[in-house]
Amino acid sequence: MATARPTAEVFIVPRFRALATLCVLAVSLTVAVASPAASQSSSAGPPAPVDPQAWVDQKDLTWDDYTPGPGQPTGWKDGSVR
């Protein structure tokens, strides 16, 4: 008498159910943990910029607005520095 071999469905279905259960559990935990943090940060308003930009368009600048960069020699305009 030959014994029947189990089919692939016997092994796949329990693994799929276990994987689906783990995925649902992971998503529900993520939502539960993230929900209080999201509501607290939204009530405080948007965060301040890390590096607020203050700029002027180059076409509006004159030579009176010029400031030398750090370490740059200042005598280049009159020819004393080459």
Question: In words, what does this structure look like?
Answer:
Helices cover 44% and strands 0% of the residues. It contains one helix and no strands. The chain has one helix at 8-43. The N and C termini lie far apart (103 Å). The model has no long low-confidence stretch (mean pLDDT 75).
Q: What integer is the average pLDDT?
A: 75
Q: How helical, in percent, are the residues? A: 40-55%
**Count of helices?**
1
The protein's oligomeric status is: single chain
| Rounded Rg | 34 Å
Series of H and E elements:
H
Structural class: mainly alpha
Distance between the termini: 103 Å
Specify the overall morphology. Answer: elongated
Secondary structure tally: strands: 0
Q: pLDDT under 50 segments (min length 5)?
A: none
Strand content: under 5%
Major sheet: size, sense and barrel closure?
none
List keywords for this structure.
82 residues; elongated; mainly alpha; 44% helix
Entry summary:
The protein is an all-alpha fold. It has one helix at residues 8-43.
List the helices and strands and how they pair.
Elements: H1 8-43
